[in-house]
């Protein structure tokens, strides 16, 4: 299972699959995906890893977050030559800390089973969206991940609308279209909670298509402001393409908080299922 | 009780005492107290209030925090002409939001009893200090108020040392000296809790003298690192001046989270007691 097709590098006896847990404040970052001339999480992280390990590193990620979106529980993987891993693995977290900007952190680096795939093994993704309708604006110490909402919202109405969206549906109305990609997803949770001025939306799904969480929250805020009835977001599920009626809320309120994976001996089976279904980019 | 000695401004019938609840990310601020040529909370806030209200405003604060220290529950007061308060009070929170930088917020502005004094009526101040000894460093979204600690600390030993400091003592060893000021304080709580890499110290007292919380936490970290026994911080209570053995931890980990006040009809009595004891600046 050591990827026998790969060339064996000097000093190693094959490749090790490595799982990285990643957290970032996305404010100053142009999203996950590497882009020339822009600071991105993938770009910074691959550069930091290559600098410390002195080999090129190519990361695969669970959730390709957009510009401005944050993460506390992002997951990525890469393959490293055995010799490199043996030499650097034990001190890698601390050494990355010394190289990365403080808006990106790697809380954990660990050897994973060869079948582990950060993207295709994932069973579910969990996001949190934070907005406040307090006229005083976001709490200063949480302003990076809390959006100030200019009008009061009814969190009860938002929760009612959210409940009608649960389950397996074609979320085309809430997705930025990608050629040939499916927009059928299973929405496992969409909870709305108020604590003082802070309204938090918890969203969980097997996977989200592009801009889906921010479109779902956008539809809920239209209900929360009383501009739409609670039945409206669910009624959009009959549409086959993105609806321009659905506002997309600002990126800064969104945080990827967790990615779920099966136990080790079910990783290969899960990846087979996901890859087979992947006319989409589950991220 | 409307401060009869004050001149009555046109359009008003005396002065109203106003309580402001204030929150700030202290990272870019040179502390509470107004200073020429520096951004400070008092300076920014008085300027914002004067701009909105078109009268000069002079704030009195519960805790004069140092440069870099944060607050989620700071309290200040000022006196405003009745006519100005009547005209602007109801929309003041929202209007301040439009004028202040996002690192300062005023969650609440309310009329207070004439006897209310943000500084002298206060019964207790509550601070939180956050540090992490996780080799990955502070969580990116909480890096403003969490200090990365370079060595592992034993939170159990810190808690043991903390317990020995409770009660009324002369905290001279932990205070930056001010001429003629008492350093006798009642430490009501000093709790240490670990959650993963995060170590949080909760400190409550009737009042803290200058740099006291950061010196107490500094003494605890010396114990946490094993450089001093748990009995050491309490042994310093016998000293009559600041001990250079006590490290002062960085300002960025410290947040003023709450100030306690008595019920309204005990405000005057409390202020009398505090003023009588005030050879110190209780802040």
From TrEMBL, chains A, B:
Q: Which InterPro entries match?
A: PsdUridine_synth_cat_dom_sf, PsdUridine_synth_TruA, PsdUridine_synth_TruA_a/b_dom, PsdUridine_synth_TruA_C, TruA/RsuA/RluB/E/F_N
Pfam families given for it?
PseudoU_synth_1 (PF01416)
Reaction(s) catalysed by this chain's protein:
uridine(38/39/40) in tRNA = pseudouridine(38/39/40) in tRNA
For this entry, the protein name equals tRNA pseudouridine synthase A
This protein's gene is called truA
| Record keywords, A-Z | Isomerase, tRNA processing
**Annotated signal peptide:** none
UniProt-listed Enzyme Commission number(s)? 5.4.99.12
Query: What does the subunit section of this Swiss-Prot or TrEMBL entry state?
Result: Homodimer.
Q: Name the source organism.
A: Blastococcus haudaquaticus
Where substrate binds, per the record, is at 127
The broad enzyme category this protein falls into is: isomerase
Does the keyword section mention tRNA processing?
yes
Query: Residues in domain Pseudouridine synthase I TruA alpha/beta?
Result: 23-120, 161-262
Lineage of the organism: Bacteria, Bacillati, Actinomycetota, Actinomycetes, Geodermatophilales
